[in-house]
Amino acid sequence: MKYIDITILKKEPLLDIQAILIIEPLAPLSMVSDLPGSYYKSSKIPSKKMICGLIENVIGWHFSAKMRISILNQIKQSRENINDYELGSTYKPLLMDYFELNDNPIIKFDSMYIYDDLWARSHSRRDSPLEHIKRCRHFETQVLAKWNNKIDIINQYQDTEEKKKTERNKVNKEYINYFPFYYPVLPTKREYIAMENGSYIYNVVFDKKLYVQFKEQLVKHNIAYIGNNEGWVNIILEEL
Prior knowledge:
Blueprint: E1 15-25, E2 39-40, H1 48-58, H2 65-75, E3 99-101, E4 106-108, E5 111-119, E6 122-123, H3 129-135, H4 141-155, H5 161-175, E7 183-184, E8 188-196, E9 199-207, H6 208-220, E10 224-225, E11 232-239
Parallel strand pairs: 2-8
Antiparallel strand pairs: 1-9, 1-11, 3-9, 4-9, 5-8, 6-7, 10-11
Helix pairs in contact: 4-5
């Protein structure tokens, strides 16, 4: 198992490194800040929370929502001021207090256009195995046949409906790991921003430990996205 160093979270942030952060879009971006309804409207610039997600992805902090809550609960015991940053998406950032954006970015581009496209959202109902299995489109036919066969056998039991429901639930829980973790839902209209030779230029102040860790990882693999996982970007980070 790969060791991930999160000891930075035990200390109070000390913002002492001035830097320039340049984000260069390599693909159209869709940066949705607020919880959307039927239309995913993009912000025109990346928010601080999005940039925090970008940084955490680059340094390898790919933690589940459950693990993030656990980490936040632990560090609240050693640090005085902890914010959950609930606004917007359900993503809970861990490093928001370890950098600060001094102002809105300078935006440069040769040309820009904004358009809508259909986007297939990924959803999961693993808390309700039967609902999840019924909604999955891609699976091995042999697995589906075995699952169906077990359910059919249970349905023929001479038991009460409550007992049969309990047995079906056991089978559903047993087989859910053979189905995809996510399934697509109906396509949703989403706004995208496309730039030619574009860049967002931020003046940022970092905690030194975070700056060093971020810079080291960018040298190894400058692979990142912002907004959603289709919004690939190139990152340039330089100390002032």
